[in-house]
Write a structure and sequence with these properties.
The protein is globular. The two termini are 20 Å apart. The protein contains four helices and five strands; from the N terminus they run αββααβββα. It has a five-stranded mixed β-sheet with strand order 1-2-3-4-5. The protein is an alpha+beta fold.
Length: 140
């Protein structure tokens, strides 16, 4: 298997089970969590957000109400799980990825604590390191 990461699917049954376990009253408000990991006792959630080619040049605009609503619902759950949320923005070319760690979210605005732009190669390395860290921390 080597350095390959888990394939990201549209739905993830294990994420739904986590939602039901951690916050059963709030599972209906979350339509999709792309990926999550347990790293050193803290849940790290990843939300992949597709952007148009034009948004890429404007550093992935976040003023679209549908995206904000989606992130707000996920943020509310992340807070219940006492986790961290990373938004990963990409376009059709997948040449560059913008990673932003959310620190606060309301219905009007997102605030970020960390941000970085990565090439496809750098993102792949970051993602594989995350997977490797999880495996190392959870192997007994």
């Amino acid at each position: 298997m080597g350095n390959e990461s888990k394939i990201i699917r549209k739905t993830d049954d294990s994420a739904l089970l986590l939602l039901q376990e951690v916050a059963p009253d709030h599972t209906d408000s979350i339509t999709d969590i792309d990926s999550y990991y347990l790293v050193n006792g803290t849940y790290v959630f990843l939300e992949f957000i597709h952007c148009s080619e034009n948004a890429i040049s404007d550093i992935f605009k976040m003023d679209e109400p549908s995206v904000l609503k989606q992130v707000k619902n996920i943020w509310d759950f992340v807070q219940l799980a006492e986790g961290r949320l990373w938004l990963i923005f990409y376009d059709d070319r997948k040449e560059h990825f913008l990673l932003k760690q959310v620190v606060a979210c309301s219905h009007e605005k997102l605030s970020f604590i960390k941000e970085s732009v990565k090439s496809q190669k750098e993102f792949k390395e970051w993602f594989q390191l995350l997977n490797k860290t999880v495996l190392q921390n959870n192997v007994k």
